[in-house]
Amino acid sequence: MKQQQMDGGARRAVFAPVDNRARVDAVVRRIGDAIELGLLADGEQLPGESELAGQLGVSTVTLREALMALRQQGLVTTRRGRGGGSFVSLPEVPGEERLKVRLRGWSPEELRDLGDHWAALSGTAARLAAERTEPDDLVQLRRTAEELTHAEDAAACSRVYGRFHVELAAAAQSARLTREQVALQTEVGALLCLVLGDDEYREEVADRHRSVISAVQDGAHTSARELAERCVQESTARLIALRLTL
Amino acid sequence: MRSSPGLVPAATTTLVASVEEQVAAQVGGALEAVFEAVAETRADTAALLARVAAERRRPATVDLAALRPGLHLRLARQELVSGVGFVAAPGLLTDVPAWLEWWQTTAEGGVRPLLLDLDPNQSAYSDYTHWDWFALPRDTGERAVAGPYVDYLCSDEYSLTLSAPVEVAGRFAGVAAADVYLRHFEAAALPLLRRLPGPAHLVNARGRVAASADPAHLAGSLTKGPDFGAVLERGRPARHDGTRLIPCRGVPLVLVTAAG
Fold it and tell me: Chain A closest CA to B76's CA: distance in Å?
């Protein structure tokens, strides 16, 4: 089921050529994210080294370094001999240590930029939603805000957190903003587990979401935008602060 | 889609109908053709589920594969339809907790199945029972038009979804449905709206604009003021503050024009 979920486009994007900067890091992040998100299924065999290097547009040496890093993170195992190769291996629990290794793959500047992009998307979505929303549109957002407080663990919490921002973009009636928000959540979602383990902060996020909903309901588009931006900026700030301790 | 699909004027249009009423009837006719695809899917599914029940067993996903030839045919035949299928009520099937037997057209003109991750431990989007296209037919027992809305579950498109309940032995088993992308609906509706002398747009029961030839009321925005739900319930043209409101026969859309 999970493997089928990736359509041809998503799968091709996984193996599209990586740009020139920081090739090893980029390959590690691309494949690591794809595994984390289930685009590459547990146990799935990766293409052979030369084929994979060709698809990603990197040298075999770069690819080997990336595979070594992925092995160290426990996301890939390599078997030798007949029927051998590199296989996706998803550890059962998304270990906090593993996520910290992923976070270390982002520089503070990249995280800041990610946060800026996210704030732009969610802030604009909140403003438009305040202009275009009628009460029935808010039912899903309310449900999501409540689910956040009851989420079982940090992983579930980060999925629901992401869904709130996707639903906000949908409430803005914008398919483009929604698609961008979905793509952005696939990048930031796993990392957010690291800051959402804190119960107090989880409550704070739920409160911030509720106040965004209230502003949207009141048609207060300026404050809806500011509240959504602040919510996102706070999460990004927490991620950057954590990154600086690593 | 470059040209508008052939629109069938409603048979009930009378000779004295105003041009506004004719346009409203033609918009209704365009969506009526989509509802035919929904009705066929509903009939196929109900017959299939009744057959399975007659064998004294419960259905599984493999049974639903029998719907595919009909679904593919409807996608090919109905220009406005970009997705069609049956969405099972949770618990209906023996092998999975939830399922969409759903097919979509591809950009290349082919068809492909929609395969979602419906595992609640993996996906935050596994529960689809609150979406209007599912909840409205389930709760009312009637066919429904959901949207326009951003469909981030199935197509990532701004869409209308037309749906109807499927029942087996009087029990709700799920919904038959068809997706119309809003850009396609607008392409079909715009030539009709442009026939009107003044600016005109179409709204749903909640006032959300579904198609517009009026730059002051673009698709996705809200037209506030009139109670469009009441206009649809009465089924007769009405006036509100300098505008004429004409219900589109058979579908929950209202044509809004400047009162002449």
Answer: 21
**Do the Cβ atoms of B152 and A2 come within 8 Å?**
no
Query: What spatial distance separates the first Cα and last Cα of chain A, rounded to whole Å?
Result: 36
Report how far residue B114's alpha carbon sits from residue B100's, in angstroms, rounded to the nearest whole number.
8
Q: Which CATH number fits domain A2-92: 3.90.550.10, 3.40.50.10380, 1.10.10.10, 3.40.50.720?
A: 1.10.10.10
Q: Which secondary-structure segment (H or E) carries A122?
A: helix A108-132
- Spell out which chain A residues touch chain B, with contact meaning CB-CB distance below 8 angstroms: 1-2, 4-5, 7, 38, 131-134, 136, 139-140, 143, 159-160, 162-163, 166, 169-170, 173-175, 178-179, 182
CB-based contacts of A106: which residues, under 8 Å, 6+ apart?
A114, A191, A243
- The ipTM assigned to this model is 0.84
Transcribe B141-169 into DSSP letters: SS-EEEEEEEETTTTSEEEEEEEEEEEET
> How many angstroms separate the CA of residue B158 from the nearest CA in chain A?
6
Classify domain B192-258 at the CATH class level: alpha beta
Q: Distance from B145 to chain A by nearest Cα, in Å? A: 15
Tokens of A225: 């935008």
pLDDT tens figures, A157-178? 888 999 999 999 999 999 999 9
In this structure, whether the domain defined by B31-117+125-183 belongs to CATH 3.30.450.20 is answered with: yes
Secondary structure class of A44 (helix, strand, coil): coil
Q: Flag if A38 and B117 touch (Cβ within 8 Å).
A: yes
User: 10-residue block means of pLDDT along chain B (260 residues)?
Assistant: 39 66 96 97 98 96 96 96 97 94 91 82 84 96 96 94 96 98 97 96 96 97 95 95 94 92
- Identify which of A2, A132, A162 has the shortest CB distance to residue B220: A132
Domain A98-245 in CATH: superfamily? GntR ligand-binding domain-like (1.20.120.530)
Smallest CA–CA separation between B127 and chain A, in Å? 11
